[in-house]
Structure formats: C-alpha cells, structure tokens
Amino acid sequence: MSVINPFHLAIPVHDIDACRPFYLEVLECQPGRSSETWLDLNFFGHQLVLHQTDMRQMGKHNDVDGHKVPVPHFGVVMRMPEWHAVVQRLEAHQVTFLLPPHIRFQGKAGEQATCFVQDPAGNALEFKAFADMDRLFATD
C-alpha cells in the first residue's frame, strides 16, 4: 500500500472545553495550534480541527452490512493491534458505543473490524482496521 497524505477535516463542536478531554485523554490525540474557538489535533497522523459553533448535526443513518451507520461520520483506518488498543481505551473510559466493536463484511474482500462512538458534541467517529491493509479498497 502506498503512503497516504494526511487529511485535514474541520468539524463543529458545541463546546471545545467539553470535547478536549475526549480527544486528548481518551483518544490520546496531541494538541496543536488553538484559540478560544478552535483546536488543532493530531488525529492518528491527520489534522482534525474542532470549531466551536452553534451548528448541530442531524442524526441520519445508512444500512451497512446489517447495521445502522451514522451519517455524517469520519474516522481513521488503522492496523489491527492499534484498533484493539483504541477499543480498550474507549472501554476503559466507559465511552458508549453507537455501534460496538465487531467484524464487518466477514469472509469477504472488505472484511474489517469497526466500531462507532460519539464525541461530546455528537460527532460520530468510526475506528476501523484491516488485517491486510492492501484490502482497504478491495471488492468481492
């Protein structure tokens, strides 16, 4: 698999101070530049920016492999050992799963471990992993 450039994603949050512990302590993201209304984070090697705003997201879902997947959502793809470590941290911090850790597309080309959580602002995050990262875009 070739190296992927880091993404930049800015998301709305209702209260940066309420979200800070989730990203810094639970997910162990490193903080970057910030102000009173925004915060840069190193989100698994990608640039995630929390922007404080009154905008709230509407909860929508799509059916994916028999599960209701929240839309919109964002996340990170990682290797299995890293995914297990993140799941253990989420569980240790008693974070409620929107979709608990499970294997999606079992036995198919796109087989992957996945789980979904929400940050304190209601943004849905997906953490997924592949036993073989070369299967990231594989189809049956």
Structural commentary:
The protein is of the alpha+beta class and 140 residues long. Helices cover 17% and strands 45% of the residues. The protein has 2 helices and 10 strands. A 4-stranded mixed sheet has the order 1-4-3-2, with helices on one face. A 4-stranded mixed sheet has the order 7-10-9-8. Strands 5-6 form a two-stranded antiparallel sheet. A hairpin with a 7-residue loop joins strand 8 and strand 9. The longest helix has 13 residues. The relative contact order is 0.20.
What key phrases describe this protein's structure?
single chain; 140 residues; alpha+beta; 4-stranded mixed β-sheet; 2 helices; 10 strands
* Oligomer designation: single chain
Uncertain residue segments: none
What amount of the residues lies in strands? Answer: over 45%
Secondary structure: number of strands: 10
What is the tally of helical segments? 2
Average pLDDT number: 88
Query: Could you state the order of secondary-structure elements as H and E?
Result: EHEEEEEEHEEE
* Helix percentage: 10-25%
Rounded Rg: 15 Å
Strands ordered across the widest β-sheet: 1-4-3-2
- Main sheet overview: 4 strands, mixed
Structural class: alpha+beta
Distance between the amino and carboxyl termini: 19 Å
Overall form:
globular
